[in-house]
Design a protein that fits this description.
47% of the residues lie in helices and 11% in strands. It contains 17 helices and nine strands. A hairpin with a 2-residue loop joins strand 1 and strand 2. Helix 3 packs across helix 16 and helix 7 runs antiparallel to helix 14. Keywords: Hydrolase, Isomerase.
Length: 363
């Protein structure tokens, strides 16, 4: 048995392929082996006429569901980035190719987004035909807290959220629940916690005439809710539509409201440089197709880890959050006001000619 099959449980029952992320102690954080296992299995099922659809879930320490995926394995990323491990390059190239496959998958891919769905977990769920949330879903793209940016196609799917909520989610890393995810177009339906296991089993035991019948069954279990809304939507659009991070923070700090001050305080904790990079990422991605966004993000992540030796915001952010756990990252520059356009521009310059780009084949 290869290692990735320990961290992934894959089986076909009936007419559906089932994947359970099985690394509960790490909240199912994606390793390179898991990325490779997912890609291998999805490609095999895509060509298998006996498989009509694919369902994916996470496991927790007590069993299935409860935690979908907390993102990429940031301890591995820190170790690999600090030592020049070439697997770092492989990880991002293969992860982004997997994200693209899921978005373009030829069969219904159904994501049970129960519990924590963050970072890389969003990458393997946002492309799903059906994105299912529950009352305990906790969703976020929190990368600015570790000096990174919302990758795995984050530029693409966050920029397509209503108004300027994509900028808000990307810059702050705010965690939202299932209903907010529905309001922002980051989920398709809510199902009750007690329904998940029975629905999962039904997918493997019922006979389906075609793929449409599989999705029809899932949709029949969704909870009808009359309306979804984001309480701070007006403020989000007012502030996060401003031209620069400096102007956003200045306006928030000049306001009287508690929400404004709390939001400004959150932004002050993030990497000043990556905040400016992220704002530009989201706004560039708004007019990009998925493949072009993923290529841009592959350029950006190369810069984050390998093109700034000795001064990587990402390695410093991971160190402070997950390695030393002192929660006092030393950002460079330290203040939002000290970031210049010349510091931001290199993130959007590709280190590869177009024909040699590691994601050149994506369409």
């Amino acid at each position: 048995m290869t290692e990735h099959l320990v961290e992934l449980q894959c089986e076909r029952r009936g007419q559906v392929g089932f994947i359970t992320l099985n690394r509960p102690r790490a909240l199912n954080a994606l390793s390179l082996d898991m990325v490779r296992g997912l890609m291998e299995q999805l490609l095999a099922w895509q060509d298998d006429p006996a498989v009509l659809a694919v369902a994916v879930r996470g496991s927790n320490k007590e069993g299935p569901f409860g935690a979908f995926c907390a993102g990429g394995d940031i301890r591995f990323l820190h170790q690999a980035g600090s030592t020049g491990d070439p697997r770092l390059e492989d990880f991002f190239t293969e992860e982004y190719a997997l994200n693209h496959l899921i978005h373009r998958y030829s069969k219904p891919y159904i994501a049970f987004m129960d519990g924590i769905v963050m970072g890389g977990g969003m990458g393997i769920s946002q492309g799903a035909a059906l994105r299912l949330v529950t009352e305990r879903t906790k969703m976020a793209m929190p990368e600015t807290a570790i000096g990174l940016f919302p990758d795995v196609g984050g530029g693409y799917f966050l920029s397509r959220c209503p108004g300027h909520t994509g900028e808000w989610l990307a810059l702050t890393g705010e965690a939202i629940g299932g209903d907010a995810a529905l309001a922002l177009g980051l989920a398709d339906g809510r199902i009750a916690l007690e329904t998940q296991a029975s629905l999962w089993e039904a997918l493997g035991t019922q006979h389906f005439a075609d793929a449409g019948a599989v999705t029809a069954l899932v949709k029949s279990k969704m909870i009808a809710v009359s309306a979804y809304y984001i309480s701070a939507r007006a403020q989000i659009d007012q502030y996060f539509s401003l031209p620069s991070v400096g102007e956003i923070v200045a306006a928030l700090e000049a306001a009287d409201g508690e929400w404004e001050h709390d939001t400004a305080a959150t932004l002050r904790k993030r990497s000043p440089l990556l905040l400016s990079v992220v704002l530009q990422q989201i706004r560039r991605a708004r007019s990009m197709e998925l493949a072009d966004d993923l290529r841009m993000e592959r350029d950006m992540v190369r810069h984050c880890f390998t093109l700034r030796p000795g001064q990587s915001e990402t390695l410093e952010g991971i160190r402070a959050l997950a390695v030393d756990k002192d929660h006092t990252p030393h950002w460079n520059p330290a203040r939002i006001e000290d970031v210049t356009p010349a510091m931001v521009a290199p993130f959007f310059t590709s280190p590869w000619p177009a024909y040699a780009h590691p994601l050149a084949q994506l369409a």
